[in-house]
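In this supplementary section we document a worked example of the pipeline. Step one takes a protein sequence of length 438 as its only input; no multiple sequence alignment statistics are reported here. Step two produces a three-dimensional model, which step three serialises into C-alpha cells for compact storage. The input and output of this example are shown verbatim.
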Amino acid sequence: MELGDALAWLDGHMNLERILNMARTGPPNPRRMQGLVDVLGHPEQAYPVIHVTGTNGKTSTSRAICQLLMAKGLSVGVYSSPHLETINERISVDNEPIPDDDFAAVLSDIALLEELALKDPAVGEGERLSWFEIMTGAALRYFADRPVDIAVVEVGIGGRWDATNVVTAAVAVITMIGLDHAELLGPTRAHVAGEKAGIITPGAPLVLAERDPELLGIFEAEHPEPLLLAGRDWEVEGNELAVGGRLLDLRTPRARYPQLFLDLHGRHQAHNFATALVAVEAFFDAPVEADLVAEAAATVASPGRLEVVGRQPLIVLDGAKNVEGARAAAAAVAEEFGDAASRILVVGLLAGKDPTEMLEALGVRGARLLVLCAPDTPRAQDAGDLAAVATRFGVRTEVADSVAEALDIAKEAAAPDDVILVSGTLYVVGAARAALER
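The serialised model returned by step three reads:
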C-alpha cells in the first residue's frame, strides 16, 4: 500500500476518540497485542527498552532519555504520543521521524497479518486490532528492522493494560501521578498508580518521580530492584532561571552534576531531565560522563512544551493537557516571561476537562484577552460553551472558528512586548505550530 492507503486502513480501526466516547466495559484484551507481536516475530525482544509512564512529563522525559543515550553513541528509537503535526512523529529513530515509505511498508505488513494475529481463542470473535495497537506494533517492528540499540517506549494510557506493555522494561520510569483519564483508569490516584505500576519488571530498576508516600507501597508491591525514589535517592538541588533555559544542580544515586544548562523552559522540566538522567544511569548501572550529560542537557528539545515560536509578540506553546500541566505552564510563563506588558491566552480543551478548573489554572484572571477555539478532533469542547464558562472570570473573551483564526485574533490584539500563551491540549498546539509555519 501507498502511505495514504495505509493510513486510511489504520483509521478504520478503533481509536482513542471512539474509546473515550464509549462506556468502559472492562480492560482491553491483551491477547490482541500479544498475538500481533507473535506474528511479527517478537520485535520487542530485539533490543532493550526503557518504558515510560506517568500523568505528566512522559514525553519530555522520554526525549531527554533519548538525548542522553544518543550522547553515549547509541541509536535510539522513541515511540511517543500524541503527535503535533504529522503521525510519523510518533515513531522516530535518533530524533528523525519514520520516513513515509518505511511507515507505509510496516503498516502494510501488519494489514496482511492482522487476521492471523487474532487467531488466539482468547480473542473474541469479530475483534480487530485497535488503532493504538497497530501503531505500537509498527513502532516495535520498525525499531527491530533499523535496527536500534535501545528503544524508549512511552505508554499511551495507564500502563498495565496498555498495548506497549508487551515489552519487558529493562528500566521502568514513572513520572507524576494525577487523575487524567479517570474514566478509564479509575476514580482515585491510587487506582491510577496501580495501573501505571503494571509496567514494572520485577527485579529490574524503577525510577519513580512521584513522591506521595501513600502511593509508594503500590509500586513496591511490584518488586522493582532497585526502586529509585525522587527526594530520597535523587534530587534537583538547584533550579535557577537562565537565559534561554534553566541552570541545574542534580544529585543522583551515582554522581552529582553541578551547573548544567538545560535548554528547556519551565521549572518542572528540571525534574523531567533529572528523571531521565537517573533512568539512563540505572540502565548502564553507572554514572554518565559529565560532559555527555552537559551536551544532552544543552541540546534536548521538547516541541509543544513551553516552546517559544515567535517574538514581538512572544508566542509560547504548551500542551498543558490537565490542571497540573496548566498550573505548571502558567507558573513558568510568570517566572520566565513575567516582564511582558500583558498576557493573551489562546485556549482549546478536550472533552472531560473541567473548563473552570483549566482556565483558572492557566491564569485567565490575569490575562488581557482570552481567545477560545475548538481543536480539530471529535473530543473537542465547543468554543462557545467555553466562552459561557469564561464569563465568570470577567476577562475579555473572543471565540474563533479555528485554531489558526484564534492565533490571528491574538496576534492582531497583541503589542510587541506582550506574551501569547497557546494551551489547553496538544491538538491546539499542533494546529498552532502548523499555522505559524504556513
